[in-house]
Specification:
The chain is built from 7 helices and 17 strands. It is of the alpha+beta class.
Length: 304
């Protein structure tokens, strides 16, 4: 079956879009435009975006945003309120540590405490009628990076379905979403690799075979700082303002929707183990826990 591929750099990463059986590039070009549009609305890496308008107005006034942005903000705030580790207001702490970026350091406790005071989800106000968002304190920052890729991947899948795409792969820098039935197997299922945290990207612990689904990983193996012999990773614990203390190197989650995978990967990584009844949810297809000592455990699926 004919395969068409488009590669681009957006959302801070290398993106690969693949469709099978298409006679032109229209679905790929439409997906690329969608990615650019969403990045323009949601980015915090430029001075201007809908999210940055909220951040610039922190402690001063509320800001009206588009309905799509508002609904994503609402989803992020609701997840933050569950208090399982995800926090859409963790940005000031991430910028304080700068792990994975130039100037990475281990801050003083007083600085950590000050940034923690800007990370309380109780200090964000939402108005469902006007789609206004208000951050109560100056210096607060909303950052949807923890779920934006999943949100965008799900949108691309819907877009491709409107185009009639029968099979495709959406790879947003490691956030993977397969669409339709794989053309490479008679059963239509997809062969998906699970990243080995101890090796570079595209080196796998093993592979699994599943129907069309999302695969999302939360891990500590790509961005870290070593200071005075101590290794500090980039996943901040919103309770302490410091990197989460964990034996895990990464958790890979397989779910139906990508935005759900983003949240569940973080939930299980911060929890440290599979939560009770997690696999009873029909949208939860499986999970792989990879540990810093090199061993791994899979649940609800076979890894070979």
């Amino acid at each position: 079956m004919q395969k068409r591929v488009k590669t681009l750099h957006a959302l801070g990463t290398r993106i690969n879009l693949t469709v099978f059986g298409e006679c032109d590039n229209d679905p790929l070009e439409a997906a690329a435009r969608l990615i650019q549009t969403e990045e323009n609305r949601l980015t915090v890496n430029r001075q201007q975006s809908e999210i940055m308008a909220i951040n610039h107005a922190a402690g001063k006034e509320s800001v009206s945003v588009s309905s799509a942005t508002y609904q994503l903000v609402r989803r992020a705030v609701a997840a933050s309120q569950e208090d399982f580790g995800f926090n859409a207001l963790i940005g000031p702490l991430v910028k304080l540590w700068k792990i994975g970026f130039a100037g990475a350091n281990v801050p003083e406790q007083a600085a950590i405490d000050q940034r923690l005071s800007l990370s309380h989800y109780q200090d964000i106000s939402l108005d469902d009628q006007t789609h206004q968002v208000m951050l109560a304190k100056e210096g607060m920052e909303l950052d949807l990076g923890g779920i934006a890729k999943g949100f965008i991947a799900d949108q691309i899948r819907t877009l491709w379905q409107a185009f009639g795409v029968e099979a495709g792969i959406i790879d947003l820098g490691g956030n993977l979403l397969t669409v339709g039935q794989s053309p490479n197997r008679s059963d239509g299922e997809w062969v998906i690799g699970v990243q080995d945290p101890g090796l570079s990207r595209h080196h796998d612990l093993g592979v699994t075979v599943l129907p069309a689904c999302s695969a999302v990983t939360s891990g500590i193996y790509e961005r870290f700082l070593i200071k005075d012999g101590v290794k500090y990773h980039h996943l901040m614990d919103p309770r302490t303002g410091r990197p989460l203390q964990t034996d895990l190197a990464g958790v890979t989650i397989f779910t139906h929707d990508s935005i759900q995978g983003e949240l569940e990967a973080k939930r299980l990584f911060f929890n440290g183990h599979l939560t009770k009844d997690w696999l009873k949810d029909p949208d939860h297809l499986g999970a792989v826990f990879a540990y810093q000592d090199g061993h791994h455990v899979s649940f609800g699926m076979t890894l070979s």
